[in-house]
Amino acid sequence: MEDNKNFMIAIALTMAILLGYTYFYDAPRQQAIEQAREQQIVAEAEQKGEELPDFSASSGVSENIPGQSPMDNIQIPVDREEVLNVRAKITINSPYVHGSIALKGARIDDLTLSDYKVTLDADSKDVALLSPEGTEGAYFVDFSWGIDGAKGPDKDSVWTSDSDVLDAGDEVTLTWDNGAGLLFSRTIALDENYMFTVTQKVINTTDSTVNVAQYGRVIRHGRPGGRSLYILHEGPMWSLDEGIEEYTYSDLEDMGKTEKKTEKGTDGGWVGIT
Question: Which of 100, 104, 127, 128 could form a disulfide with 116 if both were Cys (CB 3.0 to 4.6 A apart)?
Answer without folding.
Answer: 127
